[in-house]
Amino acid sequence: MTTPAVELRDDRLVYRRGLKARTELDMADLEEVAVMASNDHCYWHLRTRESGEALVPVGIPGEAQIRQYLSRWRGFDYDALVRFVSEPPAVGSLRLWPLI
Which of 35, 28, 25 lies closest to 57 in space, CA to CA? Predict the structure, then answer.
């Protein structure tokens, strides 16, 4: 079994969950970004306009690339992300982009 990991290059996110299990998203096509908590774990919830979707665990190898990528987006609530994942207990979900 391969360790779950994220690769992000040229707006293309690849999230590998196992030997053959993987999710690919076009980050330039994101429609909504949120973080959510379930069973004491935090996850990125990424949705694209073309019905692509991924739940990526916070803290896996390469996950920081998602934070770095989105921190440059206008309106991305980076401070709320930091508070959600670092101030236990994280509960429910929090929309980070777009902020309406």
Answer: 35
Q: Are 83 and 28 in contact (CB under 8 A)?
A: no
What is the per-residue pLDDT across 56-68, written as a single tens digit (0 to 9) for each? 999 999 999 999 9
pTM listed for this prediction: 0.88
Burial degree of 80 (CB within 10 A; 0-12, 13-18, 19+): middle
The CA-based diameter of the chain, rounded to the nearest angstrom, is 40
Angle 32-38-42 from CA coordinates, rounded to 5°: 60
| Residues 85, 96 contacting (CB under 8 angstroms) | no
Tokens of 24: 């690919």
Alpha carbon 22 to its chain's center: 14
Residue 8 carries which DSSP code? E
